[in-house]
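user: can you give me the structure for this one chain? tokens are fine.
assistant: on it. calling the predictor now.
[tool input]
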Amino acid sequence: MPNSTVLSINTLLNKAVRSLNLTALAQEKPESLCDSASSSSLKSRKPENLPTLPIKNAEIAISADDKPLSIKDKVLYHNLMTSYQPHLLHYAMKGIGCLPESVLESLVGYLDGPTAKQYEHVDAHLRLILAVNSKLKTPLHLVDMVELRKRFATDVVAMQAPTVWQQPSSTLFNSIKPFVKKDSHTVEWADKTIANADDGDMTIRCYQKQVSAAGFGFKKKPKRNPDETVMLFFHGGGFCIGDVDTHHEFCHAVCEQTGWPVVSVDYRLAPEYPAPTALQDCIAAYGWLAENCQAFGALPSRIVLAGDSAGGGLSTMVAQQVITPTAEAWQDLGINGQKTFEILQRVPSPMAQMPLYPVTDVENDYPSWELYGEGLLLDHADVAVFDAACLENSPLPRQHILTSPMLGDNSHICPTYIVAAELDVLRDEAFAYAKQLESYGVAVETYTVYGAPHGFIHFMSVHQGLGQETHHIINGFSSFVREVISTQGLVAA
């Protein structure tokens, strides 16, 4: 996990937590209240007429009606905020959601955050997160990209649940335990190094589900892959930030929920490596996976692609070029382009893909561009910086098949499960891509998460509603893929 001395959101929120004494509040807060506050759905609801509470450097009192926890419960909840220091932001953001709604609304108002009327599908907890982000966010600059990567990695890892970073024990003692808790520490992972398109080194992180024997026994059952399927995942971050650590929690969840192995790609980033370097690296990873599927208990014909934001765009471009490679496009890159084209000629087509709030059109503006381009997690200024970093020094023209997925041939694309976020500047790009695929008769399913901002999978363990939505998306895609497998089986028969 990355470590950084950079003053991050983690540090700032830690100070806020100490000043508000949220540690004590979290320890004293009854579980019932926490559940009622954090389980609010992302559906619209009327704001309550609640008084505004002053924000002071003092304890926030809980209602006299709330029953204190028992001694046993206090022990269980002890050190909620101090355990796993690298993940303090996780506990802080999740714990804030347990506050009474009156306190949440007061904090949102104090920070001049969005109201329920502005974002009708967003609960007070998420609006507070957006308000904090708006106050702490600083404009992005290309010259600060290295520091931005450090801050982003630090903050994102700090929001992830500590449990997803715990590797299953391989000790003899663990193996001979008489009883193993169901779904406890079921996912293991390892980083590997492979050759990328330019014969350099590229890191991939491989996740596999470990099935433990139930009851008495000295041996573990072998790893299994029920669908003989493997996912190749491309992280988001505007092609400039992000890595296998920043998207570890999501990949871990996919592996745990589906039983599929997941391979996450640490492709090279702009501006040091402008477009289409990331695409070349992802295609190189695809070629490696196609040759090594057997190690994951998967078939080469059952590779599925996924990615979020920029990674979603990479998913669409990899799918497009693997299925219908465009020789002329790769000729524009000379020898390096020819190397990538040779990979494309020998690999099987992907079975399906799941782009999450993807980049699909680098040129055209859509209604969501004006609706959600300010005050959210991804704004106009961010897009401009990422755009410049990725395209200004690219050997390709701005409008090119290898930079904008909708310019290429998508008529034979694999079945696609598209996820869009309602409060996202890129939302309508996802819809436009879906419409284009539908016009070609491609099997497409679109799922929109209402009340969700761009990048919402990073909040899956700190906001209950977004966590439920993320797990629902994973289950939805797995069902989608299994339907594709069933259909292919019927056709073959």
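assistant: here you go. Residues 9-154 form one domain. The longest strand covers residues 444-453.
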